[in-house]
Write a structure and sequence with these properties.
Shape: rod-shaped
Strand content: 15-25%
Radius of gyration: 24 Å
Strand order of the largest sheet: 1-2
Number of strands: 4
Length: 96
């Protein structure tokens, strides 16, 4: 009798642990996708800005245009704080 109860408790504990692990994996997966999407957007914005600075010494006209990142409308200006100094690009993450 006690052995059967112990075995049920162990089974319930294992199922609960598997459910918790599954939820954590899903949450981490979503976070990793969001991070990868943001990094990809930063690289694309930086590449466009570098090309524009090198060619004309100015930020690209598309710098303030919105595009969709992870379901949100954002512009390169939202993602990176960049400026042209002559034909050299300087970028930081936006403050705040």
């Amino acid at each position: 009798m006690i052995e059967a109860i112990s075995q049920r408790m162990l089974t319930v504990a294992l199922i609960s642990a598997l459910l918790v692990a599954s939820v954590l994996i899903i949450m981490l997966s979503d976070t990793a996708k969001q991070f990868a999407t943001t990094v990809d957007a930063e690289m694309k914005c930086r590449n466009v800005a570098e090309a524009s600075c090198a060619a004309s010494g100015t930020m690209p006209a598309s710098w303030d245009n919105d595009f969709i990142i992870g379901g949100e409308k954002r512009s390169c200006r939202d993602i990176l704080d960049c400026s042209c100094y002559g034909t050299t690009l300087s970028c930081d993450l936006p403050s705040g």
